[in-house]
């Protein structure tokens, strides 16, 4: 499925089978490999990028819907996937940035 505003609006909220535990369902975009939206049992919807980085599956949350629109999330996903394709690890860069700011 291609992730669009009408599609995200209609995504079903998953039901948790374990009392007190949240359920999650991930939906992946057919048009952009690695881009998706996560829906939780509380009704929260968040966009993410998922990709192998150094042989480890990394999932980077882009932001919550509707504050982050589908178009904004798609642009950010494209940027991050481009960085990953050129060998840049956005997760490691973000951690390094935090360390520099805290010193």
Automatic annotation (TrEMBL):
InterPro entries xrefs: Integrase_DNA-bd_sf, Integrase_DNA_bind_dom, Phage_Integrase
Domain Integrase DNA-binding as annotated: residue spans: 24-96
Record keywords, A-Z: DNA integration
GO biological process per UniProt: DNA integration
Similarity annotation: Belongs to the 'phage' integrase family.
Name of the molecule in the record: Integrase DNA-binding domain-containing protein
């Amino acid at each position: 499925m291609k992730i669009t505003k009408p599609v995200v609006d209609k995504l079903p909220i998953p039901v948790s089978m374990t009392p007190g535990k949240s359920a999650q369902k991930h939906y992946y975009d057919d048009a952009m490999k690695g881009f998706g939206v996560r829906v939780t049992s509380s009704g929260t919807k968040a966009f993410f990028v998922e990709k192998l980085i150094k042989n480890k599956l990394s999932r980077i949350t882009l932001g919550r819907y509707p504050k982050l629109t589908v178009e904004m999330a798609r642009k950010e996903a494209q940027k991050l996937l481009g960085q990953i394709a050129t060998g840049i690890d956005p997760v490691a860069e973000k951690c390094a940035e935090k360390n520099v700011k805290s010193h």
